[in-house]
């Protein structure tokens, strides 16, 4: 039993030794390692060395092939594997799902890996897995799909991090966010250009979100009619009430009903459209553009290119590993559907 414990300790130390050489850059990607007998002098028997090599092969730090031997991976995880952290399951929140889809697509295009950590709000083992992977350089950086408070455990991870929301005064943390002020401006511009001056608002339950505040400010600045009882802040779990609200609005007399709709959360777009039925009025809806979206609602879609945002985040991480400096923030500008399609055609 003592020999087994001793072998395990030696194997762990060899793992740390080789991993440290690779992470520090002393052993570069593709470099051939010394023969295994070289390590037996300092770390013990052949089975101890084999055990350590097996761990590093599984983690992606090493590769092995007949007649070639054991080499440092050309794509070691501390440079090429990005972790993405999700509070619950990404399918529960459309924005999280789109972020994961965009990150997966960008990772594939860049020849990188994406490691997903789900249910961090409730799963201690999953949180420990993320911490251990970060501590042992099995990932190169972490993207959070959820907003982090200043004391969040995510921010304590020593690797470079990207988090949604405004910039934070924390080390190696990049903030990414959409320009919600401009989204409100462009959305209301469209509605006014199409004759709307009586506008109803559908958004999520966060009444003080950036989009909600920007919308209120712009409506007031433009002297548009949008009373408080036309501003609906709804939990995404209460989608069944949304069509009923839209239908009630349209049942008002023509001169007293909204003649324009602003939807600030794309979880509600289809439900609002259902309630509007065939009502003839302009509708602008927030939307997150990403790979594989082929949905078309009876609304003018205005949103963020999340794939472009993820590309910028991945590039910021690459620059960090090259220079040691991480950007403080990335802000994405809102675009309309036709603008997104033109960009997609141009990139293709």
Summarize the structure in words.
- The protein is an alpha/beta fold.
- It is built from twelve helices and 14 strands.
- It has helices at residues 2-24, 36-43, 46-59, 77-80, 94-109, 124-135, 180-193, 210-221, 241-250, 269-276, 306-323, 337-347, and strands at 62-65, 69-72, 81-85, 113-117, 141-144, 161-164, 173-178, 199-204, 231-234, 260-263, 283-289, 300-305, 329-332, 335-336.
- The strands form three sheets. Strands 4-3-5-6-7-13 form a six-stranded parallel beta sheet, sandwiched between helices. Strands 9-8-10-11-12-14 form a six-stranded mixed beta sheet. A two-stranded antiparallel ribbon has the order 1-2.
- Helix 1 crosses helix 3, helix 2 (36-43) packs across helix 3 and helix 7 crosses helix 8.
- The longest helix has 23 residues, at 2-24.
- The radius of gyration is 26 Å and the shape is elongated.
- The protein starts with a helix and ends with a helix.
């Amino acid at each position: 039993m003592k020999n087994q414990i001793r072998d395990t300790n030696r194997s762990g130390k060899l793992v740390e030794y080789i991993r440290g050489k690779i992470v520090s850059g002393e052993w570069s990607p593709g470099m051939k390692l010394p023969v295994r007998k070289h390590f037996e002098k300092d770390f013990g028997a052949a089975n101890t060395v084999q055990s350590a090599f097996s761990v590093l092969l599984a983690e992606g730090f090493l590769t092995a092939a007949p007649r070639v031997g054991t080499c440092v991976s050309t794509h070691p995880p501390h440079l090429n594997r990005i972790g993405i952290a999700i509070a619950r399951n990404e399918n529960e929140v459309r924005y999280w799902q789109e972020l994961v889809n965009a990150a997966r697509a960008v990772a594939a295009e860049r020849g990188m890996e994406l490691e997903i950590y789900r249910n961090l709000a409730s799963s201690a083992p999953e949180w420990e897995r993320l911490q251990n992977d970060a501590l042992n350089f099995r990932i190169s950086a972490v993207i959070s799909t959820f907003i982090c408070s200043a004391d969040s455990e995510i921010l304590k991870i020593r690797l470079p991090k990207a988090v949604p929301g405004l910039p934070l005064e924390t080390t190696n943390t990049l903030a990414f966010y959409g320009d919600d002020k401009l989204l409100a401006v462009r959305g209301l511009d469209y509605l006014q250009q199409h004759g709307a001056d009586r506008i109803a608002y559908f958004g999520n339950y966060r009444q003080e979100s950036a989009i909600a505040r920007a919308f209120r400010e712009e409506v007031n600045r433009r002297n548009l009619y949008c009373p408080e009882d036309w501003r609906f802040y709804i939990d995404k779990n209460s989608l069944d009430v949304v069509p009923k609200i839209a239908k009630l609005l349209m049942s008002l007399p023509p001169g007293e009903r909204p003649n324009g709709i602003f939807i600030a959360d794309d979880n509600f777009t289809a439900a609002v459209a259902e309630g509007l039925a065939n009502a003839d009025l302009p509708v602008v809806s927030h939307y997150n553009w990403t790979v594989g979206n082929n949905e078309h609602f009876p609304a003018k879609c205005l949103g963020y290119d999340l794939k472009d945002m993820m590309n910028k985040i991945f590039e910021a991480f690459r620059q960090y590993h090259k220079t040691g400096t991480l950007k403080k923030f990335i802000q994405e500008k809102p675009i309309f559907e036709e603008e997104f399609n033109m960009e997609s055609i141009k990139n293709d």
